[in-house]
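> example.struct
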């Protein structure tokens, strides 16, 4: 608890003293404790402590007394009270001038006032202040709780804080997007939006490192357009939800705004805000679940009732009367990324959080190019229907991926995604474009490996071979050629099929293939010899290399079918 020095000097007994320094020295002093000390000071005095002394041991030595006062000031004490009468009769003007220079109050008390009684008076006042603060906090808690129970929202909470602080207030989500604001927040709203645009604000902030304010680890002051803005964390279950933003402060207002009462107010407000976020997130999750189901139904089955689709789309605020192209993304290394970020309890919880975050980035990437998106995450795949402007499919997709790659690099730079892109794009062709994107993804991953964008239009050779997948004689040739290879891969866990695909893609370049597979050259040579043994084909014979390649393609396509 704390008192101002003005309040302390008005207390009983202390009001019998006389302020030796200038009245201005009292204005900024805060008292949190009281103690009695004589020489030496050393480290026995803490910040905001009101010090009582008789001057024992240094009263007759002005130099020693000056050093004592200097050490008390350097300890960041709130003030000094000196008993006048026995050891010190009069305070030297040199010491008074020094104290004035440092805005440090010195009070002269009559000798007959007992320090024990002074301490009791100050401690009683601090206790009363604590009780008053507890009652105030209870009132704030009750008022905020009533506000939430009466269906109050984030704007209502912001108005409540503004009324208490007389400052414009905004509440943002973890990306910095404004979710609620007080009536007087117009000025800070404009400044905040400009700050976000210039700073490329990251929502991954989870704590305020190097926080210079000891009152709360959740508060920091940031500089925007030459003014100070208070930013206060909103957390729930150790997870960042958003921020409370309090409008610009002058330098001398910063400490006042970060006093204990304000911090308590904001901490109680954060509880109410977290409840609002929880309620909002529950509604959003329900809506997103409905949206997921709707987009998945568009992809997995042909439309039998367009009126039913239009009705569902309208309720979910989707416009299905636009031309769309389908994109399917497969995260290749979610497990590896999870292992590097073990701050979550389970993989399932982490996956749910991170997929929603990636969906968020997909949505804003589409918004950046003024294209609507319909997104879902199903069976470990991101399924996206991206609006196509003026039939410019390739240009739209390319621009979309430019924005998305940039965003994902900031959020999760280690993530590897493989993509399948449909050729069919237009009206009411969701099922067809999904099928194309899915085949493009699987064929592309098999032929090019992970981390590439694969277009359905680039799989013409493989699709031409689909008509041969169920040819009886070719099935026999395929089994005779790579049957042993597939069995070896399954039993030993060594992907010789992929080794051959990469080797073939690199046109027989052993060094380049070894680098791509991250293998020692000799290990690769061993694998290639094993492939020759199992297939009974020579990799030096172009016809036999073609035969292996054909059989692998037919086997791959057969699995896809």
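> example.seq
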């Amino acid at each position: 608890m704390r008192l101002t020095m003005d309040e302390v000097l008005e207390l009983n007994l202390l009001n019998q003293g006389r302020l030796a320094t200038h009245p201005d020295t009292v204005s900024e002093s805060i008292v949190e404790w009281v103690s009695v000390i004589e020489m030496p000071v050393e480290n026995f005095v803490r910040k905001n402590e009101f010090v009582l002394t008789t001057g024992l041991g240094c009263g007759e030595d002005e130099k020693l007394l000056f050093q004592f006062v200097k050490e008390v000031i350097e300890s960041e004490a709130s003030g000094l009270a000196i008993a006048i009468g026995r050891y010190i009769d009069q305070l030297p003007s040199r010491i008074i001038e020094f104290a004035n220079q440092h805005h440090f109050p010195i009070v002269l008390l009559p000798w007959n006032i007992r320090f024990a009684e002074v301490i009791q008076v100050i401690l009683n006042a601090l206790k009363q202040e604590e009780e008053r603060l507890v009652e105030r906090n209870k009132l704030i808690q009750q008022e905020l709780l009533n506000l939430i129970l009466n269906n109050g929202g984030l704007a209502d909470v912001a108005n409540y804080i503004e009324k208490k602080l007389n400052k414009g207030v905004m509440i943002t989500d973890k990306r910095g997007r404004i979710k609620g604001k007080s009536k007087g927040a117009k000025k800070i709203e404009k400044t905040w939006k400009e700050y976000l645009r210039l700073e490329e604000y990251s929502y991954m902030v989870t704590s305020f490192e190097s926080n210079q304010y000891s009152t709360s680890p959740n508060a920091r002051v940031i500089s925007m357009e030459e003014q100070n803005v208070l930013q206060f964390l909103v957390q729930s279950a150790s997870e960042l939800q958003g921020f409370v933003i309090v409008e610009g402060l002058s330098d001398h207002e910063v400490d006042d705004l970060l006093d204990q009462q304000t911090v308590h107010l904001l901490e109680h407000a954060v509880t109410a805000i977290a409840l609002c976020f929880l309620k909002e997130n529950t509604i959003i999750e329900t809506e997103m679940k409905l949206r997921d189901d709707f987009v998945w139904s568009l992809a997995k089955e042909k439309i039998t009732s367009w009126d039913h689709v239009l009705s569902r789309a309208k309720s979910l605020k989707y416009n299905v009367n636009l031309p769309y192209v389908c994109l399917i993304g497969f995260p290749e290394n979610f497990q590896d990324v999870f292992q590097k970020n073990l701050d979550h309890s389970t993989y399932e919880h982490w996956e749910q959080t991170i997929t929603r975050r990636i969906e968020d980035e997909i949505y804003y990437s589409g918004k950046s190019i003024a294209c609507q998106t319909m997104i879902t995450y199903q069976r470990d795949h991101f399924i996206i229907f991206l609006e196509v402007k003026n039939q410019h499919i390739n240009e739209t997709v390319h621009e979309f991926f430019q924005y998305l790659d940039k965003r994902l690099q900031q959020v999760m730079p280690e993530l590897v995604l493989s993509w399948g892109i449909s050729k069919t794009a237009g009206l009411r062709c969701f099922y067809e474009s999904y099928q194309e994107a899915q085949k493009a993804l699987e064929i592309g991953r098999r032929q090019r490996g992970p981390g590439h964008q694969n277009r359905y239009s680039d799989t013409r050779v493989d699709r031409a071979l689909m008509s041969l997948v169920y040819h009886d004689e070719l099935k026999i040739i395929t089994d005779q050629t790579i049957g042993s290879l597939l069995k070896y891969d399954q039993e030993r866990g060594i992907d010789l099929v992929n080794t051959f695909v990469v080797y073939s893609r690199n046109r027989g370049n052993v060094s380049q293939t070894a680098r791509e597979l991250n293998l020692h050259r000799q290990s690769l040579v061993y694998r290639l010899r094993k492939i020759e043994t199992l297939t009974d084909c020579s990799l030096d014979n172009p016809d036999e290399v073609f035969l292996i390649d054909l059989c692998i393609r037919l086997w791959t396509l057969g699995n896809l079918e």
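> remarks
Confidence is low (pLDDT under 50) at residues 201-207, 210-214.
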